[in-house]
Amino acid sequence: MLTGSTLMAAPHANGMAAPAQHMVRGDLDLRLDTGRVQWRGRPVPLTMTECKMVRLMAQRPGTGVTYRDLYDLVHGPGFMAGKGASGYRANVRAFIKRIRKKFRDIDDGFDAIINDPGTGYSWAKQGEAE
């Protein structure tokens, strides 16, 4: 079992730190550079977009990520889809449903993605569950 939290970034050629491409958060091991995700040492077959959504939530455990912020990862800032001004929320809920299913296919007890009613979702803090 993985424990603790680690963000790793390789430096750019100019010496500046690049955005973290490898993150370990409890049982989650996420490699954004290759799109590989593991949960409790087992691979989770996420798409690159799903991987980015998980990373956004897992970067700040316990802190809500809005539907809009999650949707912007898919289509870019400001893109509108669905019915009405908040139609994109249904699309985000569908993404989260698929992500949860992929984790639950590996771990029936997976509950690290927490619904933040009316706002979006968050990644559970270590030891916190829905």
Describe, in plain words, how this protein is organized in 3D.
This protein is α+β, with helices and mostly antiparallel strands. The protein has one domain (5-123): Winged helix-like DNA-binding domain superfamily/Winged helix DNA-binding domain (Arc Repressor Mutant, subunit A), CATH 1.10.10. 28% of the residues lie in helices and 22% in strands. A 5-stranded antiparallel β-sheet has the order 1-2-3-4-5, with helices on one face. Strand 3 (28-31) and strand 4 (36-39) form a beta hairpin. It is globular. Mean pLDDT is 83; it is low at 1-14.
Keywords:
single chain; 130 residues; alpha+beta; Arc Repressor Mutant, subunit A; five-stranded antiparallel β-sheet; three-stranded antiparallel β-sheet; 3 helices; 8 strands; 22% strand; disordered N terminus
Give the SSE layout.
Layout: E1 5-8, E2 22-25, E3 28-31, E4 36-39, E5 42-44, H1 48-58, E6 65-66, H2 67-75, H3 88-104, E7 113-116, E8 120-123
Antiparallel strand pairs: 1-2, 2-3, 3-4, 4-5, 6-8, 7-8
Helix pairs in contact: 2-3
